[in-house]
């Protein structure tokens, strides 16, 4: 009996040992495996790219923090996508390396990392505006590698293709041919990195259903009127319609990530930007919301956009502008010129009068207390303060003209360190010469 237990024990121990051995071998094999992301440089970039109908290229710099964070995710995605049918190729170029600078220039790279989707052997290039983690990268690129617009044939297609938290553009056509359909395809191809497109011959399947008369573009959105139909099939008119219809009357900034793409859109408009901040957990939210929305509706198309922010989610913004939480509710306007206007301890009844004074030009601009040193930002970029992935950030131009995206922390020390690390070593300009450039439209 004792010996049987003993033998059993030995078998157990040896199988554990064997398992450990196997595990260590497989870990070793994993480490030894080649990278799935192709490394390209000036010598082989063109040859590689011309061979592919679809290839994704990351332009990076070895010192860039966001690039280092992206690298393992990008590699994981490359592994998954290499098994896709047909395989999707992910590549990278060290754009900080002198001989590769021409490539970065050609593709108008203005910060790191920048990912470009190249089609038709590199004849067309499109900015990657997708997520930065592996699963998200895979899903986004699978969609980008497929047709620009997916056909909607059934209720199942509607639920699998249309995400109710996002904007979706559907073309409704009696038949999938003819001038209007061709224009729609051009449009979908042009805007595919920013919007999802579908087409159908059965309008009844769509959210908000109904019948449409002839070819129609329906834009579905998770805010305001929820959908808009449009029938002018000029490509530029269609594009303008989509861009304008995608901006909510009031953009909401809070902790809900599904709102963040709209915050991004808000900052990309050339309009003046009004931002009202208050604590969303407090009771008076609805009163502010409705008064603010009335004003925003009244000023639609008048060169000003509106954001409502939760002060709980906006600590960075407050720090950035030198505002204090005890000044909330507050409203803040930033003009394209950089001029700012502020009203603190706002009441719902103040909103309309204050905005009217602003529109009349009778408000005095506000001079902020300075949280960030002069040599780091001569500009103000509110996007920088919003913690939303994929935002354009502060850019620095070194004395020799290199453009670098600032991806460090928010404190004075972080920014000074970034400048010390990234100014041109050969010419040793003072940090003052490394003048920042504003980049608020990507
Ligand atoms: C391109 O050239 C670089 C440098 O010689 C090399 O490391 C890289 O593997 C090459 N890439 C391809 C796809 O041939
Ligand atoms: C917001 O209000 C809640 C509830 O009154 C409170 O607990 C929280 O501290 C407030 N947050 C801020 C940033 O003022």
UniProtKB/TrEMBL annotation:
User: Would you tell me the Gene Ontology cellular component terms?
Assistant: endoplasmic reticulum lumen
Task: List the NCBIfam families.
Answer: pdi_dom
Known PANTHER family for this protein? Answer: PROTEIN DISULFIDE ISOMERASE, PROTEIN DISULFIDE-ISOMERASE A3
By what name is this protein known? protein disulfide-isomerase
What EC numbers are recorded for this enzyme? 5.3.4.1
**What protein family does this chain belong to?**
Belongs to the protein disulfide isomerase family.
UniProt keyword Repeat, yes or no: yes
Query: Top-down, what is the taxonomic lineage of the species of origin?
Result: Eukaryota, Viridiplantae, Streptophyta, Embryophyta, Tracheophyta
Does the record's keyword annotation contain Signal? yes
Catalysis: reaction(s): Catalyzes the rearrangement of -S-S- bonds in proteins
- Where located? Endoplasmic reticulum lumen
List UniProt keywords, sorted A-Z. Answer: Disulfide bond, Endoplasmic reticulum, Isomerase, Redox-active center, Repeat, Signal
Q: Where is the Thioredoxin domain?
A: 16-146
